[in-house]
Amino acid sequence: MVQLCIATRDGQFVARYSEKGLAELDFPPLDRGRRGNESQTSLPGKPNEGSPLRQPIPAKIRDWHRATEAALQSILAGREPKKFPPLDAAGTAFQQSVWRELRKIPLGRTKSYGEVARQIGKPKAVRAIGGACGANPIPVLIPCHRVLAAHGKIGGFGGGLDWKRKLLGREGIEFQT
DNA sequence: CATCAAAAACTCC
DNA sequence: GGAGTTTTTGATG
């Protein structure tokens, strides 16, 4: 499992890769009220030079990482990425089907928990859908933030509602309070 | 290991 | 406001 960082204007994300693809993506801490990063400033230049970080990054992971970084930056800027890295999100069969469904939501569009529930053939599992979304290890690329509660209500968000509001705003999506 | 109980990013009446 | 559904997770025997 390899871990790499992605610096964006919204902070530093952390991406983790398995042998099969991107496995996890973490939000940087979002402290509201303050603009931009603060103590996050890792020294630019060569990362991890001199630190006990063994095992060089395989070439294929560097490729994936480039794709991840570009895709992430695109979405944060409100543009549909042209390319995605292979995803290797681990989860139950139910969760995988939910995540598959989420990836079909185009940027700038939304879907309700109820709609997702119907589309995976379990119309009454709306509540469980919420759970699956919360378990999503790769936010942003798997657009769990594009799932709203019924009537365009914001619903909840694992990484903090501020992130959800921000992401939706970047995509030009309107929602209720 | 099999079971049970509780909680959850929901919906609908 | 409250009950109904499904899935996951952690405790219990």
Short synopsis of the structure:
The protein has 177 residues and is α+β, with helices and mostly antiparallel strands.
What keywords describe this structure?
3-stranded antiparallel beta sheet, DNA-binding, alpha+beta, 177 residues, 31% helix
Please tell me about this protein's structure:
With 177 residues, this protein is of the alpha+beta class. 31% of the residues lie in helices and 13% in strands. The chain has 5 helices and 5 strands. The longest helix has 18 residues. It binds a DNA duplex (13 and 13 nucleotides) through helix 3 and helix 4.
Residues in helices, as a percent range: 25-40%
Question: What's the end-to-end separation, in Å?
Answer: 39 Å
Main sheet, how many strands, which sense, barrel?
3 strands, antiparallel
Work out the number of β strands.
Answer: 5
Poorly predicted ranges: 33-45
Shape: globular
Mean pLDDT across all residues, rounded?
89
Number of helical segments? 5
Chain-wise SSE layout:
Blueprint lengths: L1 E7 L2 E7 L4 E5 L32 H18 L16 H10 L8 E2 H7 L6 H9 L12 E2 L12 H10 L7
Parallel strand pairs: 4-5
Antiparallel strand pairs: 1-2, 2-3
Helix pairs in contact: 3-4
The protein binds a DNA duplex (13 and 13 nucleotides) through helix 3 and helix 4.
